[in-house]
Amino acid sequence: MAEQKTATLSFDGKNIELPIYSPTAGPDVLDIRKLYAQGDVFTYDPGFTSTAACDSTITFIDGAKGELLHRGYPIDQLASQSHYLEVCYLLLYGELPTAAQLEDFESRVTNHTMLHEQMMNFFRGFRRDAHPMAIMTGVVGAMSAFYHDSTDISDPWQREVASIRLIAKMPTIAAWAYKYSIGQPFVYPRNDLDYASNFLRMCFAVPTEDYVVDPVLSRAMDRIFTLHADHEQNASTSTVRLASSSGANPFACIAAGIACLWGPAHGGANQACLEMLREIGSVDRIPEFIARAKDKDDPFRLMGFGHRVYKNFDPRAKVMKQSADEVLELLGVENNPVLQVAKELEAAALADPYFADKKLFPNVDFYSGIILEAMGFPTSMFTPIFALSRTVGWIAQWKEMITDPAFKIGRPRQLYKGETLRDYVDVENR
Q: Are residues 238 and 275 in the same domain?
């Protein structure tokens, strides 16, 4: 057995031994759990950028290498050779399924896509111009009022039922949020379609004529789902874990994750990218904006290029670029100025040494925004589709945490800089 590694922290005449743990991948971790009890101090880490709040076996990211693994499998292999529901199974249960296991899992998901009919009334309680993310946050949170038989987190079967329900019903919720926002009738799911095709049909079919899903578009949508399925301990996943640590029901926890994802610094990146492309406006203005992006004194930045975690390249972008090329070849860009700008901007940035030297390559948000725009989705639907995709990751992280015997309610500390103790003064003496 390997000797336990430790680090010694010395301050105020005290020496505190802190254990060091080595993960299966990634940097060593310094265990500071007893620091407050032994030394009457705790650490300061705004944004938790250097703090591991949990141990996990689900997803690993190496930003320097540009590596993303789900249960050890590279994301590019999963996105190009697998499909979303198989990746869902992998994230939930830890291993790729056998053919029989996959058939059973797909059947369970497919047969739970319908929403309780009374939930239609909940949708209609929103203003007609409500943002789809506002609707999704409310409706997912309200699921706990409709599905009482899957809210007991101490019951493994109820956890399983809740997991399947959320994965199965999220496309219906997202599609109905879209339909409601544009004033069109809801389209019910169909069990004869695959997961991505079913979602596209619920978004774009109308009662007067059906919508036949092109397999290229279905495959592109499935890849978007797959490439966004999980991404380690990001802001929304950490929100789900923190909410879950209180023992809240799974629907409330996922609703909390959706609310966090709505922030423009998190799930809104592909929307920001499309807004930038619209700001550029036309192909002939690209050199101007490329020059502005290089100017440190200009606030303009190229959205959809580079990534906070990946310091080399985004491993998801290569597969997403392939889908973007396939979709644009199918649908064309001739009559869409935004897509024309996107293709020319991509080529210009990739050919410019400035961006190559700084490793500012197009990321997954750049290409997913292009695909969704080409499919006909408004930018208001980009983040709901992200939430739909990420639901399985949130659920996998939720299940992992609440089944850990060592888990406890989250309670971050603070560096207090307010007033010290002072006495109350009566109002007439102030």
A: no
In a domain, 420, yes or no: no
The Cα 65–Cα 58 span in angstroms is 18
Can you give the residue range of the structural domain that contains 84? 73-265
Average pLDDT over residues 265-289: 86
Name the phi and psi angles at 67, rounded to 5.
-120, 135
**Inter-CA distances, 60 with 26, 83, 269, 340, 429, Å:** 8, 19, 22, 35, 60
**One domain, residues 249 and 147:** yes
CB 16 within 8 Å of CB 363: no
Token reading at 247: 């023992």
**Domain annotation covers residue 66:** no
Across 26-42, average pLDDT: 87
Instruction: Give the pTM.
Output: 0.90
Considering the domain architecture, whether residues 104 and 209 belong to the same structural domain is answered as: yes
- Same domain, yes or no: 142 and 16: no
Instruction: Provide the number of structural domains found in the chain.
Output: 3
Among 265, 228, 245, residue whose Cα is nearest residue 367 = 228
CA distance 106 to 85: 7
Q: Is the pLDDT of residue 241 over 90?
A: yes
The least confident of 107-116, 226-235, 261-270, 383-392 is 261-270
Residues 101 and 145 in one domain: yes
SS (H, E, C) 113-144: CCCCCCHHHHHCCCCCCCCHHHHHHHHHHHHH
- Find the helix packing angle between 337-351 and 286-294, rounded to 10°: 50
Q: Please, are residues 15 and 39 in contact by the beta-carbon 8 Å criterion?
A: no
Residues annotated catalytic, as ranges = 307, 365
Measured distance CA(82)–CA(106) in Å, rounded: 14
Question: Do residues 298 and 332 both lie within one domain?
Answer: yes
Rg, the chain, Cα only: 24
The residue among 347, 375, 403 that closes a domain is 375
